[in-house]
Amino acid sequence: MIRLIRSIFVCCLVLALFSCGKKAQNILPYTVSKVFKTDTLSTINIHINNRMTATELVLIAGKLKTDSSQIKSLEIHYLLPGNAETSAGDNSYYASARFIKDNEIKPTDTLKDDNGNVVRLKIFGLSSEKAKLLLTLQPKEIAGKNVLGRFIDDYNHTVIIPFKDPFDKKDDLYIIEFDSTATAVSKTVPQKVNDGGVEKWLVTQNGDYITLKDNVLTQYAADGLGVPFNSIKSGI
Q1: In this predicted model, what pLDDT tens digit does every residue of 177-235 receive, in sequence order?
Q2: What single DSSP character describes residue 161?
Q3: Deepest of 2, 11, 40, 61, by most Cβ within 10 A of its Cβ?
Q4: Which value, in Å, is the radius of gyration of the alpha carbons in the chain?
Q5: Which residues have a Cβ under 8 Å from the Cβ of 112 and sit 6 or more positions away?
Q6: Which residues on neighbouring strands pair with residue 119, listed in sequence order?
Q7: Do 122 and 96 meet the contact criterion of CB atoms below 8 Å apart?
């Protein structure tokens, strides 16, 4: 009897340890904002609150795949706060994940979700650590200035800082872009125009412009028909 009790106890302990090892990982909050389909692909846009690791992004992808099991070809776009839902940019979102059909799997496709589905993940944006480094830079050019925000350009790996000089009687806007060494890689004094009540700042002679509103910097090409190619929230 004692041996039987001991055996049962050992089995329970092993099962408990196994269960702990299989404990479900926490899925960070996200919001589905748009779903669009073609004959060959279904794409889901989701908004995330912060920059995430590859593991965290794949966990969300796996959850969406499970919830959409009837969808054979699924792609997911991850948008940070401030990223525009519709954009003319090629990679105007933080990351993308795409589930691969069995007949499309390559030897390099080693990433899988918890259910064994093969997924290709591309992270276009910077990690939290690299973004924090850029956001905490204190370059000499902005000392004593009225900084209007710090905007991470994920595709150039820079931080864009618009500011005004409190001693400038013309009240001009200045924009400097810095790399991770606090070196200025571009400097602009944009021209302000009012277009139908919208305050635009022309940043090139070609007519490319930006808008600054609600802590979001939005970039437009002159020939972009009013569709932004990038949109960034300050401090993210």
Answers
A1: 999 999 999 999 999 999 888 899 999 999 999 999 999 999 999 998 889 999 999 99
A2: E
A3: 61
A4: 24
A5: 118, 119
A6: 99
A7: yes
